[in-house]
Design a protein that fits this description.
Blueprint lengths: L1 H19 L4 E2 L4 H15 L14 H9 L4 H12 L3 H10 L4 H15 L2 H11 L2 H7 L10 H10 L5 E2 L6
Parallel strand pairs: 1-2
Helix pairs in contact: 1-2, 1-9, 2-6, 4-6, 4-7, 5-6, 7-9
């Protein structure tokens, strides 16, 4: 759809401009990096939903906790990557230990992944290595993560692992 194509166009443009900067340090003053981060957060948040009672039957305590603090995008990322991608544990632990609000953690995680050159692998793990049932528990069926555009996003992000990012983690 046109809605899904817009963030991909933003990512494509930002990646193209960042790749032209190969060899340079990309820091917090980079408009391209900021555009990329905003588009990625938008993409990961598209179609995100709360887990519902049918996702984990018989766990009333968990439902009560969810009512107090509904699942967040950061919760999905941290929970999923810790289970399915061993190298992500250090990155997740660092972001979890930061003195920031949960809504800021996804952005900090994305910056850290770019700085460490592992964004492509992390996104690939989230989209391809997780069981479909778990993804459906967190995302609606029309979410960007289930679209053909996600394959395009992954291929665009593959080249970013070689870019020298030194983005500040806290803004």
């Amino acid at each position: 759809s046109e809605f899904e194509a817009l963030p991909i166009a933003t990512v494509r443009s930002a990646v193209r401009r960042l790749m032209l900067s190969a060899g340079e340090v990309i820091d917090g003053s980079s408009d391209e990096a900021l555009e990329l981060l905003m588009a990625l957060e938008h993409i990961l948040g598209h179609g995100f939903k709360r887990k519902n009672a049918s996702d984990e039957p018989g766990r009333l305590e968990q439902l009560a906790l969810q009512a107090l603090s509904p699942p967040t995008l950061w919760g999905f990322i941290s929970e999923s990557l810790e289970k399915f991608h061993e190298p992500a544990r250090k990155t997740i632990a660092f972001v979890r230990s930061a003195n920031i609000k949960d809504e800021q953690r996804c952005g900090v995680w994305l910056r850290l992944c770019l700085n460490e050159g592992c964004l492509h692998k992390m996104l690939q793990t989230l989209c391809n290595d997780m069981p479909a049932q778990q993804l459906r528990a967190w995302y609606g069926r029309n979410a960007f993560i289930f679209s053909d555009h996600m394959t395009v996003l992954l291929s665009l992000c593959a080249g970013l692992d070689d870019v020298n990012f030194q983005l500040p983690l806290h803004l």
